[in-house]
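Posting this for the archive.
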Amino acid sequence: MLKVGDKLPEVSFSKLTKEGVLNPTTSQIFANKKVVMFAVPGAFTPTCSAAHLPGYITLADQIKAKGIDEIICVAVNDAFVMNAWKKSQNAEEITFLADGGAAFHQAIGLTMETGEFGGLRSQRYAMVVDNGVVTLLNVEPPKTFEVSKAEVILAAL
């Protein structure tokens, strides 16, 4: 499993833009930037939509004021779903990435099997990544929402 001090593995994500679906790689996304990335088990799901994402929307300016260049939300969904969720939540200050096949989450060891809910998904977590290297990693125990909240990450910056 990924730990503090590790460099993120090189994988491609999907991101829907005005130009269509782009597939930026880990190195393209994280190079020469300090990033907060948080993962949710699924777009449009209750805790994710009611609490996790809204916290980052509300605190985005304060988080960025602490030297963060970008805030990224990632989930094992497709780029179209992630973009629709971004629009529905009015989350323009957050970058949404899709890990549709769960390649990234498998590579970092943060998947969970949800069975009929949606199959293989990401665990809920938040991390701070500086130029591709993890400097903070807060992984939630199953069915909890405490350590990956925006307030907790902001306090740690």
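The chain has five helices and nine strands. The longest strand covers residues 133-139.
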